[in-house]
Amino acid sequence: VALVGTFLAWTWTSEFPGDLTVTGYPGGLQVLTLVGAVLTLLFALSGYGIKGLGWLTPGGANSPVRLAALGVLGTTGFTIGAIAVKLGGVVNLEPGAWVSLAGAIIAAVAALGLPADQELDDTTRPTPLNRFINTLRAPAPARAKDLPNWAEILI
After folding, report:
1. Source organism's superkingdom (predicted)?
2. How much is the pTM?
3. Is the pLDDT of residue 50 over 80?
């Protein structure tokens, strides 16, 4: 949903840097939301085991989704806040901004609902902050496969 919102106008005036008034062509900070939403989608699809995307998440599948979704929410929230402050209120926001914000909130809440890639270890006190930080950690990726004999010659 945040991805779709980047193709809609976020404000009605071009006084905000980046000209976020154009529909169908993201500009300025919309591009950051667009890239973050695409990365979140790719990480989520990689977690489902879509062929060809396994290289994106060699350690754990849920931690990258959670970080990307929180990044999209932060970027979109910052942009909407900056527009409201610079232009004098939320009345200056167009529907595209609200669509992207709703999509970023949905993605972040859904990502926070994913299980942690690693269990909380016994050495850490199980405070809410430690639990949250643990959900952002991914297990170490597996050891790289050995090269075939013909490829070792090239190195």
Report:
1. Bacteria
2. 0.81
3. yes
